[in-house]
Write a structure and sequence with these properties.
By secondary structure, the protein is mainly beta. The chain has 1 helix and 17 strands. A hairpin with a 4-residue loop joins strand 16 and strand 17. It is globular, with a radius of gyration of 18 Å.
Length: 229
């Protein structure tokens, strides 16, 4: 509708790590506000319009000793929460000990064709696709070493060759462009910050990258198509 969502700086929710705004406005390009949405846990990183119903997918925080670890869906008209997911529902408390920002979600997107969301928990070095209705994991895009020996290992995509993996990514999105000419794959792009010095498997490669993967969701495999410095 030629409007945008603006995060206001007039009200903040204090947290263990940093304050986050609680007020979001639907605003036009002349600065006229039409609707205000209140996000009790604060908003960070991303708000998107969930097509085709127009609801808002918002990254927020549980504020239960942790931040940047929750997704909510707000009804566009009423402002009520109609779906939500905390990262501990996916990964339990296996990675939360003594880490306030253990997940650090930084993007969320919605694929209407299969009712899935794609999320980027940066501090797990992973892109995760899951069913938005059932909250069941579909696959995890990460260096297999990240989840080796854990109960999440079964979701990790199998690489078709050795390549330079992503670390501490800041965005994971599915794109419509067919870059490999294979109708059985979907293309996943991300900005790879490439930082993870505390992990034994980290390659210490300098720089950051734009990375594009091709994921075969039936075979649960992944190919690296592009890695641009």
């Amino acid at each position: 509708n030629s409007r945008m969502i603006v995060a206001s700086n007039e009200a903040f929710m204090p947290s263990q790590a940093k304050p986050q705004t609680t007020n979001l406005y639907e605003m036009d390009y002349l600065g006229r506000a039409y609707t205000m949405y209140y996000v009790a846990g604060g908003n960070h990183h991303e708000v998107i319009e969930k097509e085709p119903d127009g609801n808002l997918l918002i990254l927020t925080s549980t504020l239960q000793d942790h931040v940047d670890d929750k997704i909510i869906e707000l009804d566009r008209k009423s402002g009520e929460i109609v779906n939500s997911l905390e990262m501990t529902e996916l990964f339990g408390n296996d990675y939360t000990e003594d880490v306030i920002d253990w997940a650090h979600l930084n993007t969320v997107s919605y694929q209407a064709e299969d009712d899935t969301i794609l999320i980027s928990p940066r501090n797990l070095n992973s892109g995760v696709k899951l069913n938005w209705t059932t909250h069941e994991i579909v696959w995890i895009l990460a260096n297999p070493e990240v989840f080796k020996g854990t109960k999440y290992e079964k979701y990790v995509l199998t690489p078709d060759s050795d390549f330079l993996w992503h670390y501490r990514q800041h965005t994971v999105y599915q794109i419509d462009t067919d870059l490999d000419g294979n109708p059985d794959t979907v293309e996943i792009t991300m900005f790879d910050n490439h930082r993870n010095p505390e992990a034994d498997y980290y390659d210490h490669e300098k720089g950051s990258f734009v990375t594009v993967y091709a994921v075969n969701e039936k075979e649960k495999t992944v190919s690296l198509l592009k890695k641009l410095p």
